[in-house]
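Protein details
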Amino acid sequence: MSKFWFNFPLPLAALYITAVCLNHAALAVQVTSSGPQTLKKAQEESVTLGCTYSLDASDVGDLDIEWTRVSQDMTQKDELILSYTGGKQYQLGSPDLMSRLKFAGDPSLGDATVSVSSVKVSDTATYQCKVKKAPGVDSRKVTLVVLVRPSPPKCWVEGSEEKGGTVSLRCKSSQGSSPLKYAWTKESGNLPPTAAQNPQTGELLIRNHSDSYTGRYLCEVSNEVGTERCTYALQAYNRRMLQLLIVAREAVTPASALYLIITAIRGSITAQLAKPMSHGPDPVAAVPTPNAAESKGKPACLHLITGLRSDMTADMDTPYNHRRPARGHGNEKIKLTQKMQYCARP
């Protein structure tokens, strides 16, 4: 036998010894878990980090299982967070993580899988499971990425909704892990042919706006772990549209009473400042509010009762509509149609 080894070429002997060692290692501890090496979860969800293993008869040492959080800094040690040794479990990580991370079953029975509940963005890391039972040892790494779902977005129009102009519909989610993707659709039919949208900013531009483009638009924002949406009812107004009455922060006094004449022009409403009529009831009666001293710290309001002559029409269907029978005054009739209150916060 010694003569055989003496005459056996050294390189072949080395290969033989290596093969024997590898074969022995294959029969030792093996972590058998499979699946993706990277898991992406939404915040507050639960996740399972798999680590099943098998043993060999040659593994005669004590069973030792370690879960560590791998340090991104190569110069720093990995953080040992959970272990099983001598038949006992030891929680070694931060109290916050340990209150949510635990073995999913009995780690001594071939399953060292752990579960983490209510995951947080701070849980994002690479975790390693190492199973040792002398002389065998094996390990597996899995990366957990915790993302934030998009928050419910806000839909609004930037600027006016004037016919013939360019309308800018905007959509914005205040929270959510990047990248966020925005997509506009129209609930009834396709987007206008003049529309162009930006999936990164959430803007939908509609050029040459018209009545045919009105309707309810839906914006959907999404990322890898969630989707949220909002809607906006787009209108189309003529240039002579209802003007907003802006009330100053100072309280309105009788001396500064305003008059609002409302007329209907092609189905839209025009508001303008006007003087009282020379005869007959005023089309607008301004009800004064308390003076500035009395209303300090309270919103300044202007209460308006708007009137239309009987020979005029108006398309005004609002929650504040209080219709009353027409009442005559001379040769003219006044129909009280609206009671409105405008307030400015101090």
The two ends are 105 Å apart (CA to CA).
